[in-house]
Specification:
The protein is an alpha/beta fold. It contains eight helices and five strands, in the order E-H-H-E-H-H-H-H-E-E-E-H-H.
Length: about 180
Amino acid sequence: MTAPLFVDANVFLYASDDREPVKQPRAIAWLDRLWQEQSGRTSIQVLSEYYVDLTRKSGTRLPAQEAWTRVAKYLAWEPQPVDETLFRRAREVEQRHRISWWDSMIVAAAQLQDCALLLTEDLQDSGVYGAVTVRSPFTLDVREAAAIYAVLPRAANPHRPRGRPRRAVRESELL
């Protein structure tokens, strides 16, 4: 099993943009893989940005209903809501890593969903934010991620448990 991967709005946009002959197939390949593995994650913030870009900023300016149809299918990924938990985590990320507020919200959403990878071209490729590594979907091949970011079984704790050791019960005490 592979770890969940967080997808930023630019990946969704490139997958929808016929004017990007190099980036569009790569973005589509990533999204197809994430659907197949059911490992795609995103946030309400990202889906909102995707919707706005499709309806207002993209070169094609899609009608609202068509844009909604494209965006709404990603609700199946159970996107991270913008709530107090996300808000507080984003503040921690912003303070610790000194990145913009909006990027902090994206990183925090990826962290809260236990994602190993954040696919975006908006942050430095190979940047690490806690347990989340940023990768550009246009420099990291889809096949590479499967090997690098596979979830390994948790190793047994090599340390003895905390607290006072339990006293062994003698057989004579049981009678």
